[in-house]
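We treat protein structure as text, and this decision shapes the records that our systems exchange. Because each token names a local backbone shape, the row as a whole describes the fold. For reference, a complete record is included directly beneath this paragraph.
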Amino acid sequence: MNDDDWNDFYDARFAALVLDRKRDGLPATIDRLITWLRLSRGQRVFDQCCGNGRVGLPLARAGLGVVGVDATEGYIDEANRLAQAESLDARFVHADARSFVAAPRCDAAINWGTSFGHAAKDEDNVAILRRVFESLRPGGRFALEYPHVPNLLRDFQPSIIQRVQTAGGEVILIRESTLEFTRGQLAQVWTYVLPNGERVEKRGATRLYLPHELARMTREAGFDEIELFDSAGAPLSRTSAKCVMLAR
């Protein structure tokens, strides 16, 4: 997707109905990231594809310095507003992750919340990994969260319907998915049915990389010591919902 596509798909509605509702279990995720990345207070973390700071802000509250980047300007504005309100050591930048390099270099980096793989071309996704590598000090660690494709294919659901209660009434979220095998991607149509009956349609796509392909691309970007496990740190299995990759 280009910048206009990202700003259209990842809007305030998506943040309120999807991102902000993923906060359950977030404290445990923050603790795991600090452990996996071997972080201590005062060190700096690069939050690539940071969204509205859902993970970066709690890391800053834990005493870490944070620099984040995202292509959605509204999310960056919100994250910076919250960081300033709490006087956190956190700075969020509106830029393209394919070209942005954090400066000064950081001690660790994350790309969390299944934000990776939205570029249609493999070389663009590798470029994102290269920018992480260039943003890290020697020995810096990187953690990436991604859908576990074997499980996604095993339990593929072409249509998912969610009902979300908001202050303005119930919103129905319909996600229709198509596996595009020739492109190796998951194409989705998200339809929001608003309380007044209005329907808002958004389209997006994600490349589908198997775990060994993620590892290969990450090595191409310069990393080594690559580990793969699930979101709780257990060995990957065919029923794992997410694949976590840790690299140095």
Notes: The radius of gyration is 18 Å. The chain has a mean pLDDT of 92.
